Backbone:
């Protein structure tokens, strides 16, 4: 296990953990929750989507970030920005 470069923060407030995944220009947006995040990445929770590409965009809090999947376990996956 490597030490984290950035400390993680949990989203606070009602509905503040809701986010969307953009996997392609003609693909519908995928709902997800942000479990925690840092300047370098995030832990996401996704339902009902069996297979996601390794790279996609995360729409969260009015910003769009390009993501790369670095780990996955069940419904959760870790992404790097």
Residues:
């Amino acid at each position: 296990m490597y030490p984290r470069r950035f400390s993680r923060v949990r989203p606070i407030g009602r509905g503040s953990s809701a986010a969307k995944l953009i996997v392609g220009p003609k693909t519908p947006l995928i709902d997800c929750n942000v479990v925690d995040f840092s300047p370098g990445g995030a832990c996401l929770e996704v339902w009902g989507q069996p297979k996601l590409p390794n790279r996609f965009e995360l729409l969260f809090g009015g910003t769009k970030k390009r993501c790369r999947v670095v780990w996955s376990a069940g419904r959760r996956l870790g992404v790097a920005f």
